[in-house]
């Protein structure tokens, strides 16, 4: 069976992370799990390590999937970033907890796990948000969808709403090539209809498809040929960047039978209807970076669209979002130094 590493990035969210790990222990195929902690200030590493060692019951988690309260990983190892990136085995422990040494953002935290997977000759890496729990067959469905492609590279799950598991949060993402404005596809669709959905048919002219980053599987071949995530984004749109970099080399698969239940914005302050100033700043900063990387001639259209978004936010009473957009445009959104 192909070897898969599950990579989970944690930042001040140990309760969510434990629930996520517990769902991975219920998968119908064996995996190793690497949790990369981005310098949490809430004692996350100690809390997760203690739970993994069987010291006390797991925190209460009313999850839409079955979580065995007595199940623990088959061994746990704590390591520093350098050891993880050179591929240290951690004594064969099923759960590897890595202190990254700083807040490296989504890409930086995940890249540590991706480097480990490459060093250990793993076939796939599954990037799974810590504020999500997976159905037992979610990974198997991703692998099937990826392997059905002529050049297996990347596959995304559908996301169901953690609080309303009978509703779709997103089948996938869609982004306009001209303005790099993104939207979620299928939001609010009944979950029972998701598996039959024709995701590509939901695209509008001028849009491309990308997997929502809360759950995506990448192959070793994809990582070798396309490369790791770009860390300059820090937060948001790394998956769209990956799709554009792999365009023409690897088709994208959306596994509509791979179900992952996701809290919207549990760690970032982002929701469909409102967002914090910080979340908005990072989101629109990443949008500008995408445009600069892939379509610098379109920058006037991107900036105009962002100004329209800011005006819309003001009209609808979301001043925090408008401030974040303007800060991004003025270059005042600066990620912490990892």
From TrEMBL:
Residue spans crossing the bilayer: none
Domain of life, per lineage: Bacteria
Record's keyword annotation contains Glycosyltransferase: yes
Keywords of this entry: Glycosyltransferase, Transferase
Record has Metal-binding as a keyword: no
GO molecular function, one term: glycosyltransferase activity
Similarity-based family: Belongs to the glycosyltransferase 2 family.
Protein name: Glycosyltransferase
Organism: Sphingobium jiangsuense
């Amino acid at each position: 069976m192909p070897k898969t590493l599950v990579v989970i990035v944690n930042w001040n969210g140990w309760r969510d992370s434990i629930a996520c790990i517990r769902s991975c222990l219920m998968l119908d195929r064996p995996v190793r799990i690497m949790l990369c902690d981005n310098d949490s200030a809430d004692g996350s590493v100690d809390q997760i390590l203690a739970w993994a060692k069987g010291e006390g019951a797991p925190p209460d988690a009313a999850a839409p999937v079955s979580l065995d309260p007595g199940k623990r990983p088959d061994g746990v190892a704590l390591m520093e970033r350098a050891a993880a990136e050179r591929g240290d085995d951690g004594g064969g422990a099923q759960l590897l907890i890595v202190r990254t040494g700083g807040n490296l953002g989504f890409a930086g935290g995940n890249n540590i796990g991706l480097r480990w997977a490459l060093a250990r000759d793993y076939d796939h890496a599954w990037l799974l948000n810590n504020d999500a729990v997976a159905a037992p067959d979610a990974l198997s469905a991703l692998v099937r969808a990826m392997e059905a492609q002529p050049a297996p590279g990347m596959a995304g799950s559908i996301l169901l709403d953690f609080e309303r598991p009978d509703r779709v949060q997103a089948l996938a993402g869609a982004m306009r090539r001209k303005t790099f404005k993104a939207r979620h596809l299928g939001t609010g669709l009944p979950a029972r209809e998701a598996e039959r959905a024709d995701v590509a048919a939901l695209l509008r002219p001028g849009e491309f498809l990308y997997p929502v980053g809360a759950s995506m599987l990448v192959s070793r071949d994809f990582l070798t040929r396309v490369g790791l995530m770009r860390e300059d984004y820090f937060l948001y749109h790394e998956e769209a960047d990956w799709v554009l970099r792999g365009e023409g080399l690897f088709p994208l698969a959306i596994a509509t039978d791979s179900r992952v239940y996701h809290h919207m914005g549990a760690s970032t302050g982002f929701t469909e209807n409102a967002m914090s100033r910080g979340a908005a700043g990072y989101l629109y900063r990443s949008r500008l970076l995408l445009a600069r990387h892939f379509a610098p001639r379109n920058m006037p259209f991107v900036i105009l669209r962002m100004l329209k978004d800011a005006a819309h936010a003001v009209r609808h009473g979301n001043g925090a979002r408008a401030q974040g957009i303007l800060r991004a445009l003025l270059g005042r959104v600066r990620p912490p130094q990892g």
